[in-house]
Amino acid sequence: MENVSNQQIIDALQGQFGEEAIYGIAESHGILQVTTEVEHIVPMLHFLYQHPVLKFQFLTDLAGIHFPEAKGQELGVIYHLHSLENNVRLWIKIYVPIEKPEVPTVTGLFATANWMEREAFDFYGIIFEGHPNLIRILNVEDMDYHPMRKEYPLEDATRHDKIDELFGR
């Protein structure tokens, strides 16, 4: 088993894709986080999967995110990868404008991405181009909005059965 450092991962990614393609480099609790552009995500995931040392062959999670104040980058996807052989994790983030929330699917590389991408579509409206069955997974099909976007209130203002004091309000 290799002892892979976060710096080795950064060096491998920048060596393959260039320094301008890997930015927003940070670390949280030992987990490396990087940001890239949409056009790099599929080749980058293939590179990390096939790398003879890094071996990021497990997609732990794929999550949609919404930052309404970030003009032109309101929606995003975070890919949580794990190299089981090296016991190293990595997060890769990409951002898209809310007017064109299109991201390529990664179901061809990770079968588990199927349900994860459907969930991100269902709750955030992120369209995963090339997905084999991009339909809602938890909400009803005729729903005309995406409930996890921050443009919707957390609670139903018409409800009168809640006592605010019990919730610390």
UniProtKB/TrEMBL annotation:
The family database entries (Gene3D superfamilies) matched by this protein are listed as: NADH:ubiquinone oxidoreductase, 30kDa subunit
Q: Which UniProt keywords apply?
A: Cell membrane, Membrane, NAD, Quinone, Translocase, Transport, Ubiquinone
List the Gene Ontology MF annotations in alphabetical order.
NADH dehydrogenase (quinone) (non-electrogenic) activity; NADH dehydrogenase (ubiquinone) activity; quinone binding
Top-level taxon: Bacteria
Question: Which Pfam families did the record assign?
Answer: Complex1_30kDa
Residue ranges annotated as transmembrane are none
Membrane topology, as annotated, equals: Peripheral membrane protein
Q: Name one GO cellular component term.
A: plasma membrane
Where in the cell is the protein located? Cell membrane
Note the coiled coil stretches, chain numbering: none
- Which reactions appear under catalytic activity for this entry? a quinone + NADH + 5 H(+)(in) = a quinol + NAD(+) + 4 H(+)(out)
**Oligomeric form and interacting partners:** NDH-1 is composed of 14 different subunits. Subunits NuoB, C, D, E, F, and G constitute the peripheral sector of the complex.
**What role does it play?**
NDH-1 shuttles electrons from NADH, via FMN and iron-sulfur (Fe-S) centers, to quinones in the respiratory chain. The immediate electron acceptor for the enzyme in this species is believed to be a menaquinone. Couples the redox reaction to proton translocation (for every two electrons transferred, four hydrogen ions are translocated across the cytoplasmic membrane), and thus conserves the redox energy in a proton gradient.
Which family is this protein grouped under? Belongs to the complex I 30 kDa subunit family.
NCBIfam families attached to this UniProt entry: NuoC_fam (TIGR01961)
* Name used for this protein in its record: NADH-quinone oxidoreductase subunit C
Species of origin reads Aquirufa nivalisilvae
What's the gene? nuoC
